[in-house]
Structures are given as structure tokens and as C-alpha cells.
Structure prediction request, 332 residues.
Amino acid sequence: ASGMTSLDSYSVAWVKSSLTDWIYLSVTPSSRIFSEISRITRFNIIFIAFVLLAALFAVYFAARHLQKPLRALLARSDADAGGDEFAQIDNIINRLSARVDNLSSTLDKSTSLIQNQITLDILNGNFSDADEIKSRFALINIDYSYKYYGLIFTKMNRVLLGGDAGSREIAIYEILNYIDEFWNKFGLCTSVRYGSYIISVLATDRADYLNRAQISCLRLPQDINLCLCDAVDDIRLLRRKFANIDRYMQYSFIYGYGNVFTDSDIERYEQNTKTPGDDLFAAIGDALAQNRIDDTKTAISDAVDRMKQEGLSYAATHTALLQIISVLCSEI
Prediction:
């Protein structure tokens, strides 16, 4: 048996041993028990008071910091309103409205710059996924919710790029705007100037946008070459397409201008294993050695025509042009 009772200022507890007839007693002064409870209670009160005091100080300093710009605004408005509270409120609203208008104007002026930077990042692969591009376009109020993405190369002839700087930039700007206007009929087209190219990224909901587009209706100067890419469903694939086409289009001039290529054409050229024979350059060297300038020009033209007819790969074209230059330099 066991039990516990209180006697005046003591607490008595007892328990009978299970092995003997002995009974064990425990006598504890009540003051000892209550002193421990009092100590814990005092600690809790002090701790809660400290936390509340720290919170009050934090709120006070935060409020003062947040009120600084508001107090400054109120001071300016009060000076303008001459103590009239309604005029003061009206001044505050007008100032805030003016700031919003200024921010909106700044964003509008920066929209084209932001759009160009996003397009360059797409071409260079400086993003993680389509959601990142979508969120960045959302900053300039453009909804980029599309299923497919295409790439359009517009390579301009050096004749078009000639002339004075002002006329050249105006011509390029007009072509860029026209390209965007034409391709925007199929989705959202964003174009950037890239060396002698205008590179356009087209976001669209149709994978067959090339079949729908009537390229013959695209009114561009004759001294331009186009390369049109098939649509892909992963925007990250555009970087690889961009690198391949950029490399090959450097030598698209051997086909003349006014041509339309596709990435399928370029892939077919790249799979071509033909290499230029030595006879391709022999006629150039012979004509140049005998100072027959007209024959030399004809031989170079014939060599370029053969390269065009054989559809050489980028590497083979690069090698052939270097050999032509080497022959010319060796005979000068």
C-alpha cells in the first residue's frame, strides 16, 4: 500500500515494501516544494518581460525607419498645402501618381532593350528552362506561353551593309521591324542585330509555321539570304541550332544571294563527305602565274560554282576558301 498526505508544513508520503513488512516514509517540508515552483514562475515572468521589451524596441525602430520617407513627403505636402489637410492628401496622391507614371515610362523605354537581352540569352543558352524565359518576358508585360520555337536567320550582303553609317543603320532597322511584323502573324517574333545577320526567335503554337508562311510574300531586298529552322518544342534546343547555322551561313555567299535555306538543307550539306580536288585550284594558279587577270577571275568563279554544285560541308568549304587564298597569296 502507498499514499501521501499533508501535515501542517510537511508533506508525508509512504509505501509498503513488497519483500518485508517495512513501511518507507518520506517527509518533505512544503516550503521546499513551493520555493522551486516560485523560482520557475519568477524566471518565466522575467523572460516574458524581456521578450516583450525587445519586441517593443524592434517595432519602434522599424516604425521610425519606415516613416522617414512618409514624414518627408508629408513635410513637403504640408508646405505646399499651407496647412490644409485635404490639399495635403491631394498633394501626396499626386506625387505618388507621378512616381508611378515615371516608373511606367522608364519601363516602356527599356522594353526593347530587355527584349533584346532576353533574345540574346535564348540564342546563347543563358537560361535554365522555358519558365525562366516566360517569367522574364512577363516583366515587360509579354505573355510567352507558346508550344514551339523557331529560328530565322537573315544574312545581309555587304553591299547592303555598305554606305554611310546612318543610312546603313536605318536600312537594317527597317528590315528588322519588317521581319518582326511579318513573323508576328504566326506568334511572337523577337529579332536582334547580330553582326551581318538579323536573328529572329519565333515563339508559336503551330509546329508547321514554315508551311503556313508564304515566303514569297516576304518583301526583302534581293541581296539577302534566309535560313528557316523547323520548330522545336524545347526552347533550349535553339542554342545548338543557332551555333550550327551561324557557322554554315558564314559561307552562304558562295550560293549567291536571294536564297532561302532550311536547317534540313544545312544538315544535308554537313553530311556531305566530298572534298575539293586539287584541280579546283590549279586553274587559278596557272592563270595568276601568267598574269591573266580575267582568266583568274573566271577560274575563281568556276571554283565557287563547283563548291556550290557539290554542296560541300562547312569544313570542306572553309578549307577550299583557305586554299584559294593560299594560291592567290603564293602567286602574288
